[in-house]
Design a protein that fits this description.
Layout: E1 11-15, H1 20-31, E2 35-40, H2 43-55, E3 60-64, H3 70-84, E4 89-92, H4 107-135, E5 138-143, H5 156-176, E6 181-188, H6 209-220, E7 230-233
Parallel strand pairs: 1-2, 1-4, 2-3, 4-5, 5-6, 6-7
Helix pairs in contact: 1-6, 3-4, 4-5
């Protein structure tokens, strides 16, 4: 593996960065010297994180956005590049869930989940691609889920979004690899965050947000002639 020096000075845009996995990734990238754009809906929370980073001499920008809106996606990228420079690393982490029997799900549930978990990834990746192509380098890392590989009761819409995300990731990787851009997916199992209740699971045995952040760093520090296309991340013990 190359050292974290390969990340130093790069501009990274992390979605869903106000808490949980996204915040852990943002902090990891900041520690290695990246300039970090933090994107989420909670502007006040983002500003508090930017202030925290600033106290440590880390350059960061908070870019509030609702990724279900195409106009917000375009604005988030523009504001990140105005504040920090062209995006070298895109971490598509933002996600929402609906869990319940398919016969009880609504069209609104479907649209809400697919718009954030899949369409926003497509739109943001499409937006950063031209700049990365010009630079002949770049990383796009999509935080997927083991739900993109395994079906479970009540998971129809969420699983559909993550199965679709893995297909999108693999196709983008083929489209962009001739331009020096590496596109990867990380598929964690249950992570100890506020995303869902995890009823009956031991939080101490679950994956932690920092485990996903470590996987991101592993991808970003690979030798330039190769890339990790997908990481499946499980806890050592079943929670």
């Amino acid at each position: 593996m190359m050292s974290a020096e390969t990340i130093k000075g790069k501009v990274a845009l992390v979605t869903g960065a106000s808490r949980g996995i996204g915040l852990a990734i943002a902090r990891s990238l900041a520690r290695t010297g990246a300039k970090v754009g933090l994107c989420a809906r909670d502007g006040k929370r983002l500003q508090a994180i930017v202030d925290e980073f600033g106290q440590s001499g880390i350059k960061a920008a908070g870019v509030p956005a609702d990724l279900s809106r195409t106009s917000d996606i375009c604005s988030a990228l523009r504001r990140t590049e105005e504040a920090l420079g062209p995006v070298d690393i895109l971490i598509n982490n933002a996600g929402i869930g609906f869990f319940g029997p398919v016969q009880e799900a609504s069209e609104e549930n479907w649209d809400a989940v697919l718009n954030v978990n899949l369409k926003a990834v497509f739109m943001l990746s499409k937006a950063v691609a031209p700049g990365m192509i010009r630079a002949h380098s770049g990383h796009i890392i999509n935080i997927a889920s083991l739900a993109g590989k395994s079906a479970f009761s009540g998971g129809s819409i969420y699983c559909a979004s993550k199965w679709g995300l893995l297909g999108l990731t693999q196709c983008m990787a083929e489209d962009l690899r001739p331009h020096g851009i590496r596109v990867s997916a990380i598929c964690p199992g249950s992570v100890n965050t506020e995303f869902s209740a995890h009823v009956g699971k031991d939080p101490q045995k679950m994956l932690q947000p920092e485990d996903v952040a470590h996987a991101v760093e592993a991808i970003l520090t690979q030798q330039p002639q190769s890339f990790i296309s997908e990481i499946l991340l499980r806890p050592t013990q079943k929670p």
